[in-house]
Amino acid sequence: MDQGTRWRAPGRGRSRAVLAVVAAAVLGAAGCDAVGGEEAAPSGAGEKKAAPAPSPTPVWDTSPASVAAVGDSITTGFDACSVLTDCPEVSWATGSSGKVDSLAVRLLGPAGAAERSWNYAVTGARMADLPGQMARAVTRAPELVAVMAGANDACRATTSAMTPVADFRADFEDAIGTLRKALPTAQVYVASVPDLKRLWSQGRTSETGKQVWKLGICPSMLGDPDALDAAANERRETVRARVEEYNRALEEVCAADERCRYDGGAVYAYRFGTAQLSRWDWFHPGVDGQARLAEIAHRTVTAAKP
Q: Who contacts 147 (Cβ-Cβ below 8 Å, separation ≥6)?
């Protein structure tokens, strides 16, 4: 080195340049992403495909593997085959007759229905009897319970003897609670109570039917069937109004249970004619009427949405 030449420290500009180079090297070694916010990252950088979301399990199964039925004389097939006699083989819910093609047969086939369907309905039963019937039904662990009850709560000796709506509702809630305690995921199909006044208006055309009515079939509606005075009309309208209140209770209790389907009033609205009524009492459903009830039930149970 020339002794006359003096050493000089690097200038500020040069120092900044050196620091910039060092910083870039450190950042590069640390693996930081140098891509700007507006610029697309290199292919594959930070990409991770999300797993597809699993399909939710539907709450309602449109093809249950077993069926139990609870209810009253309509579900026992009363007077459908002979006078004042149950005929469970033509029951809309679990019957084996090909003329009816019951709900159980439509869902399970004839062999399946014979093995995996059970009928606990009792002629004359009222809603107060339903919790006990349900307790027997759950011992079979059915995947679907079909319910039709309430006509006998309105069919009393007098209108004042009809079941109060609050009691009707409480008994139905009790029955559903009995089911839920034993079988939390079992499904329930609930049929509306038929329009008893329409059944009177159709059946009163038969002299034979009116003679059978005198044996005590639904006196609150069918008593003195040819009377058309104000008192008789008021009595029948009182029964009809009570049936409509029962149906509202069924609908509301069922709506509170996500595994319950009410028929939307379809049975109440069905225009039963003489072809659908028993040829002995002209009030209970005959074989054809049972088939129509089975159609309504199957349509409700198998609908994609209630």
A: 69, 70, 71, 130, 175, 188, 189, 190, 191
Is residue 71 within 8 A of residue 277, CB to CB? The reply is no
Q: Count other Cβ atoms within 10 Å, centred on residue 52.
A: 6
pLDDT digits (tens, 9 = 90+) for 192-212: 999 999 999 999 999 999 999
Q: Which two tokens stand for residue 139?
A: 């011992």
Q: Is the per-residue pLDDT at 305 higher than 80?
A: no
Averaged pLDDT, 102-129: 98
Cα angle value 154/278/104 (rounded, 5°): 85
Within 10 Å of residue 256's Cβ, how many Cβ atoms? Answer: 9
Single pTM value for the model: 0.81
User: Two tokens at 297?
Assistant: 């039930």
Note the pLDDT of residue 58: 72
Tell me the C-alpha distance between 278 and 276, whole Å: 7
Question: Residues 6 or more apart from 284 whose CB is under 8 A from it?
Answer: 73, 74, 78, 79, 80, 277, 278
Specify the length of the chain in residues: 306
- Backbone phi, then psi, for 242, in 5-degree steps? -65, -40
